[in-house]
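Section 4.2 – Deliverable D4.2 (structural model, holo form)

The reporting period included a commitment to supply a predicted holo structure for the target in complex with shikimate-3-phosphate. Inputs used:
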Amino acid sequence: MTRAVNNDRHLANIALIGFMGTGKTSVGRLVADLLRFDYLDTDEVIQSGTGRTIAEIFQNDGETAFRTLEGKVVQELTGRKRTVIATGGGLPVNPENLTSLKTHSLVVCLWSSPEKIWERVRHQSHRPLLLDKNPQTKISELLAAREPFYKQADVLLNTDLRSLREVAVQVVHQFRLEASGQ
Ligand code: S3P
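Output (structure tokens):
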């Protein structure tokens, strides 16, 4: 699904949004390779800037402090060009973040069903929000709460039945289409 991108926007970058485990990092790296763009991950920027892991930040300072750091990283991206930006799963919940990303990026949401997400994240342990006694319920609840934000993306791509490469090729295709229409 694609929404018409407003002509006033300058699409210098691609921002990937979506829930944890939808493939933003892997797809982002592939897209960057295909377009010869730089690749940047907002979680990595936070980790290298603070010298701490996301889990440590959540544990010691709490989620609100993490969201503040996330917002600062988004504001620092405004001068970027030719970059694929992979974002943390909760980043678009703050409307200011999405508004800011849209000023310079085509915003693409990678969408997956809760079942598929669980399949992908069940053997991973680095995500503080999934350290819950019932992570499957947590995924369904969080995904439902975030759906309205994810659906504000310019492009929504269902990744359930596509390989990472197929998703990456689709992202490149949509970007070329939108960028050439400017
Ligand atoms: C989060 C997703 C994580 C990371 C943090 C919070 C979320 O990023 O930013 O653990 O709120 O969904 P990924 O989506 O890259 O796992």
